[in-house]
Amino acid sequence: MTVPANYTNIEIKLNRLYSQKAVLEHKLKRSENNFRKMRTRTLIQMGGLLELTPLPAICNINIGDDLQIDKPDNAAILLGILTDFANQIPDSISSENLQKFGNIGKSLLKKKF
Questions:
Q1: What pLDDT digit, counting tens, does each position of 63-99 carry?
Q2: Terminus-to-terminus CA distance in the chain, angstroms?
Q3: DSSP per-residue letters across 40-107
């Protein structure tokens, strides 16, 4: 059986495609990792802000508590409080109210740091 002359060209093109596929898969994985890291950073920062409020104490949650294992009921209470508060916020908040909330937050941050 004779191999067509362009067989090696086909192999070369196929290898290039495999290489391009590997590059794209690597970029996708890196992009997914970057998104995961950004999400984790944001979640940690939100948790830090939540710690500055009286809500953890109200829910009897202390730093170091494992909310999934040790205090799932307390976590449910906190989630319920936050959800109830969020449901009371109108669909659109005026820029004046956003400014007011921002001022309150800035004041609290200055006191803590």
A1: 999 999 999 999 999 999 999 999 998 888 899 999 9
A2: 80
A3: HHHHHHHHHHHHTSSHHHHTT--TT--TTTT-HHHHHHHHHHHHHHHHHS-SS--HHHHHHHHHHHHH
Q: Please state, in angstroms and rounded to a whole number, the distance separating the CA atoms of residues 44 and 16.
A: 42
Residue 102 reports pLDDT greater than 80:
yes
Spell out the residues 6+ positions from residue 81 whose beta carbon is closer than 8 angstroms to its own: 55, 58, 59
Higher pLDDT, 113 or 30: 30
The full set of domain ranges for the chain reads 1-52, 55-91
